[in-house]
Amino acid sequence: MRILGIESSCDETAAAVVEDGTRILSSVVASQLETHGKYGGVVPELASREHLRAIVPVVRAALEQAGTDYADLAAIAVTAGPGLVGALLVGITYAKALCFARELPLVGVNHIEGHIHAVISQALREGRPIEYPALALVVSGGHTHLFEVNGESRYRLLGKTRDDAAGEAFDKVAKLLGFGYPGGPVIDKLAPYGNPRAVRFTLAKMKGNPLDFSFSGLKTAVLRWFQSRDMAEEVERRRELLRANPRPRVEEWLAVTPQATRDVLASFQRTVIEELLRRAASAAESIGARALIVSGGVACNTGLRAAAEEARFPFPVHFPLPALSTDNAAMIAAAAFPKLKRGQLDDFTLPARANLTLAD
Q1: Three-class secondary structure of residue 243 per DSSP
Q2: Domains defined along the chain, listed by start
Q3: Chain centre distance of CA 218
Q4: How far apart are CA 11 and CA 171, in angstroms?
Q5: Is residue 139 within 8 Å of 294, Cβ to Cβ?
Q6: What is the C-alpha to C-alpha distance for residues 213 and 221, in angstroms, rounded to an integer?
Q7: Predicted confidence (pLDDT) per residue in 135-184, tens digit
Q8: Is the CB of residue 69 less than 8 Å from the CB of residue 28?
Q9: Is there a contact between 51 and 329 (Cβ–Cβ < 8 Å)?
């Protein structure tokens, strides 16, 4: 049973063909990094235009790489939300058109559920299926959520960020210090060259739900650290480096990054990771979790992966492959498979929902 997945929720246009919910026959992603990098973040209108340019060739490439024709497909799955509404509309409209022309079923998928299924399907491929109940930590530039997962499509929201998502905090700190966009990968690469305990950042204390996250205070603490120093020339050197080379090597970054800045990057990353894993541990204990799923773009962070391993949780910790951590369409097709088996289909009234929730 082959499903064509289409993903266009933010700044990547992606298509993939997945067989039986686990076997990835193709996965094609067209990044908009160069388009948005010069602006220090995603520009929604530009994202929509880039999706319009890329959607047809990306879908064609995914079908060709999979050696698949529309006649071989059981359904077409598409991200219905959450995300940028204009970007979502491009993928949804194209998926509807294909379903209408080819008389195929349409399956709308929640983007966050896709991230969770990126891990579930990988675990099945590796012959180590996830035991339930599981705790899912979905952490990216747009999301930081904790879900109880009971089976393939049963979720309960346990905690979420009240302000910035973790990945968003990484990007904002990197932008402030002149490291460009996206900043998370740069901080991750430079953090090992700093002292993670050189700068003491206070952990957030939450009123109400203790499993909620907050990263705005940490971001503000870095801003105050920055403002207390004369860093204009240092930041400008990094910006000049970016103008000359949009993708500097680590050695080039180190040449324009003094030890004090390396230390604050390492301390910032350590604090974010502590926040994520501390609340994940509390949530896992509260539900008697038998596995931890970590997914989303920040799941690529090597510091987070190492810390999760060192934490020695009393249950397996599952991370997706780096290529399946960031936005991709294979996870959308995988999440659609159990829906298709249940006959949970959508019609051509399927809307783009920018604030679509997975569970309350």
Answers
A1: helix
A2: 2-116+324-342 (3.30.420.40), 131-315 (3.30.420.40)
A3: 20
A4: 15
A5: yes
A6: 16
A7: 999 999 889 999 999 987 799 999 999 999 999 999 999 999 999 988 99
A8: no
A9: no
Sequence-ordered alpha helix ranges (H) in the chain: 33-37, 44-66, 85-102, 111-125, 166-176, 184-190, 216-227, 232-244, 250-255, 259-287, 302-311, 322-325, 330-342
Q: To the nearest 10°, the Cα dihedral for 67, 70, 73, 76?
A: 120
C-alpha 20/C-alpha 1 separation (Å) is 5
Name the token pair of 77. 């799955």
Rounded to whole angstroms, the Cα distance separating 270 from 224 reads: 18
Cα 183 from Cα 165, distance rounded (Å): 14
| Residues 9, 91: Cα–Cα separation, whole Å | 8
* Residue with the two structure tokens 């030890």: 259
Tokens of 338: 């159990």
Phi (first) and psi of residue 15, to 5 degrees: -145, 150
- Please identify which residue in the block is written with the tokens 């700093």: 194
pTM of the model: 0.94
